[in-house]
């Protein structure tokens, strides 16, 4: 299939996206702080007390890292870009770039015994849900508008979109789980990052 004249190459989209992912990942580590020790206090227990910060950091790093890998994998398949694809990619980057804020919020209130922990977990989960929605929408849009060079049967298209959508639904379910247990929500979201670590685009080259 020949590219339409009003379609652009994806190289600038990929380069811009790589920069945003790199900045977002870098910002995550800036929220890790050295513990404030009282006179005579030992460092090791103080570091253990900082586990919410490290847990939230590792989870968000894994999510952004896997998102970047899958974004690269997706754009190996997508050969052309239209304005719709560009806007959808900007939507994905909006939530990817925002992730350091809910990560810090989640870490700050993870051990709170009131409702603050649940609200922080819900904000974090909502951010990831919206990012996942845009991620799925990019691939759906690329298939619908023939922005890939290989042909896929309708069944193959549905299967590839479904592999993304299952994770999206689980992210949305994590919003509800946030109001039950914030620590369990963090664990589930980390496991979802592991799920997305497996190749989601099984296409015919």
TrEMBL record:
The keyword Ion transport applies. This is DUF1211 domain-containing protein. It comes from the Bacteria. It comes from Kribbella koreensis. It is found in: Membrane. Keywords: Ion channel, Ion transport, Membrane, Potassium, Potassium channel, Potassium transport, Transmembrane, Transmembrane helix, Transport. Belongs to the TMEM175 family. The keyword Transmembrane helix applies. The chain crosses the membrane at residues 15-34, 54-71, 83-101, 121-143, 164-196.
């Amino acid at each position: 299939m020949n590219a339409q004249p009003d379609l652009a190459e994806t190289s600038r989209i990929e380069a811009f996206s790589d920069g945003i992912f790199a900045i977002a990942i870098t910002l995550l580590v800036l929220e890790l702080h050295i513990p404030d020790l009282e006179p005579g206090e030992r460092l090791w227990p103080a570091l253990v007390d900082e586990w919410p910060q490290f847990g939230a950091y590792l989870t968000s790093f894994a999510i952004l890292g896997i998102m970047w890998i899958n974004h690269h994998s997706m754009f190996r398949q997508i050969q052309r870009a239209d304005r719709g694809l560009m806007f959808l990619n900007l939507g994905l980057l909006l939530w990817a770039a925002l992730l350091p804020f809910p990560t810090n919020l989640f870490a700050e209130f993870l051990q709170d015994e009131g409702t603050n922990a649940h609200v922080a977990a819900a904000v974090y989960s909502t951010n990831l849900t919206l990012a996942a929605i845009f991620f799925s929408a990019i691939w759906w849009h690329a298939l619908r508008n023939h922005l890939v060079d290989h042909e896929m049967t309708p069944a193959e298209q549905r299967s590839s979109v479904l592999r993304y959508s299952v994770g999206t639904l689980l992210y949305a379910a994590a919003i509800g789980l946030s109001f039950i247990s914030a620590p369990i929500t963090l664990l589930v979201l980390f496991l979802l990052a592991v799920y997305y670590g497996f190749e989601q685009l099984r296409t015919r080259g």
